[in-house]
Design goal:
This protein is an all-alpha fold. The protein is about 80% helix and about 0% strand. The chain has 2 helices and no strands. The protein has helices spanning about 5-25, 30-60. Helix 1 (about 5-25) runs antiparallel to helix 2 (about 30-60). The longest helix is centred in the last third of the chain and has 28 residues, at about 30-60.
């Protein structure tokens, strides 16, 4: 049985994660713990983009 996924919805959420992590880093005031953790979040978001967002582009969603 084929399962349907909301690839477009996931891609939008991933984009929001990136935006929020980047904004958090901007307002961190240079707090190293926040900056490092935001960088880790962004690295994970990149993997999600490769997995989901790139597929969404290929599917034309």
């Amino acid at each position: 049985m084929a399962q349907e996924y909301d690839i477009k919805g996931m891609a939008k959420k991933i984009s929001a994660l990136r935006k929020n992590a980047e904004e958090l880093k901007e307002i961190s005031g240079g707090i190293q713990a926040v900056d490092r953790n935001a960088d880790r979040i962004l690295a994970n978001v990149k993997m999600l983009e490769i997995d989901i967002s790139d597929v969404a582009e290929l599917l034309g969603e």
